[in-house]
């Protein structure tokens, strides 16, 4: 049975979602509330995201599938009133990529359509809070087909770029975060620096 408080928070947020999508949000909220460890949160939510990704085309609205020829598109699906959770539908046209970035949060990503490519970067030293002198080495590559799920936790933060190479079809993915993902650190790998930037999204 759904937690009544979670239902109320979805309704109070003004977000119109399908019953199945609301159920996923309810479950994600209940499994990620503090003091839950981020590793336990993603462990519990990952199977739910896999199930959601398989049926997401039936639940997502047209507004969730908007795209832009200039850059990848973040379409807000849900944001908790207390900013403890947010869900976005991202649309990637061929050749569109994120910059190298981190998240400052745990996250669960599920692919709905196409193949999403993730290229990771590994810090060569501990994060001491400085925004310069950051040595990053290229890490591995993960190809995520439909229904594939990827997760990450902070401390150390997950640093990567994500996108779709030119020549591949469009991809659509769902991104769940343990906060409102309105900003993140952008990394300049060659300069060894990072800076906090605001990240835009489309309201539903």
Structural class comes to: alpha+beta
Molecular shape: globular
Radius of gyration based on Cα positions: 17 Å
**Major sheet:** 5 strands, antiparallel
Q: Please give the CATH class.
A: Mainly Beta
Q: Ranges with pLDDT <50 over ≥5 residues?
A: 1-9
Series of secondary-structure elements, N-terminal to C-terminal? HHHEEEEEEEEEE
Question: Strands of the biggest beta sheet: in what spatial order?
Answer: 1-2-8-3-6
For the record, give the distance between the C-alpha atoms at the N and C termini, rounded to a whole number: 27 Å
Measured as a percent range, the helix fraction is 10-25%
Number of helices: 3
| CATH fold field value | Jelly Rolls
Mean pLDDT over all positions: 92
CATH homologous superfamily name? Jelly Rolls
Strand content: 25-35%
GO molecular function: ferrous iron binding; oxidoreductase activity, acting on single donors with incorporation of molecular oxygen, incorporation of two atoms of oxygen
Family: Belongs to the cysteine dioxygenase family.
Keywords: Dioxygenase, Iron, Metal-binding, Oxidoreductase
Protein name: Putative metal-dependent enzyme (Double-stranded beta helix superfamily)
């Amino acid at each position: 049975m759904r937690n009544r408080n979670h239902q109320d928070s979805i309704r109070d947020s003004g977000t119109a979602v399908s019953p199945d999508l609301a159920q996923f949000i309810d479950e994600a909220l209940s499994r990620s509330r503090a003091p839950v460890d981020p590793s336990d949160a993603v462990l519990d939510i990952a199977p739910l995201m896999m199930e959601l990704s398989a049926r997401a085309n039936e639940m997502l609205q047209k507004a969730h599938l908007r795209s832009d020829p200039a850059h990848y598109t973040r379409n807000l699906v849900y944001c908790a009133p207390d900013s403890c959770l947010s869900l976005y539908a991202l649309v990637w046209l061929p050749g569109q990529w994120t910059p190298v970035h981190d998240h400052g949060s745990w996250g669960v990503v599920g692919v709905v359509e196409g193949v999403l490519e993730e290229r990771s970067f590994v810090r060569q030293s501990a994060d001491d809070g400085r925004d310069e002198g950051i040595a990053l080495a290229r890490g591995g590559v993960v190809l995520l087909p439909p229904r594939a799920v990827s997760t990450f936790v902070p401390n150390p933060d997950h640093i990567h770029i994500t996108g779709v190479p030119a020549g591949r079809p469009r991809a659509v993915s769902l991104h769940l975060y343990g906060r409102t993902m309105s900003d993140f650190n952008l990394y300049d790998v060659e300069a060894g620096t990072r800076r906090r930037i605001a990240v835009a999204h489309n309201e539903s």
